Amino acid sequence: MRKPTLIVVVTLLVLASGCASTVQKTDAASATSIGSTSGKTVVLNITGSDTSTTAKDWGQFKGLWREPCTHESAAVGDTFLIQDGEPKATGEDGTLVVVNVLDYRYVSEGARIMFGVMTGNAFINAHVTFRDLKSGDVRSTKTYDTTSSAWEGVFSGMTIKQVSAMCHQIFTEIGGSSSKVASSTR
User: Which tens digit of pLDDT belongs to each residue from 42-58?
Assistant: First the structure.
């Protein structure tokens, strides 16, 4: 193999190595024990700080949650719904997941590929509260943080990968066991 070709191949391998997004959360050692009937219906409500909800890409950011959470719920046989407005109990068996986004930086796949390192780092900082869907009682609250580094290259974790990773963690928490939740692509 010629030297320039080898350099290109090695560079591509290095760039591709940063494609995973990880979620840092508080109390990582224990899963939320919500109960067997609570996981049948999962309702997601996304709220945020004034900084988050007034960002120009807030609508796009909120829209990213439907597909990965639908995928995760289907993997465990749960019904998944999105609730708009103020978080509220519905009187049904299930879990109300309130994701309160304190801050985030939205980086799309297109921006990362087009502008690479110049795009900057994507991140999400959120408090997630798990509530009983029937009564509204709080079962658990955790802080979730995701980060990526633009220096990982064009394949570093964009916002969609971080949202997917958070959805996976949320359904793992609800299930009480990571073995119940099917692995998702991150």
Answer: 999 999 999 999 999 99
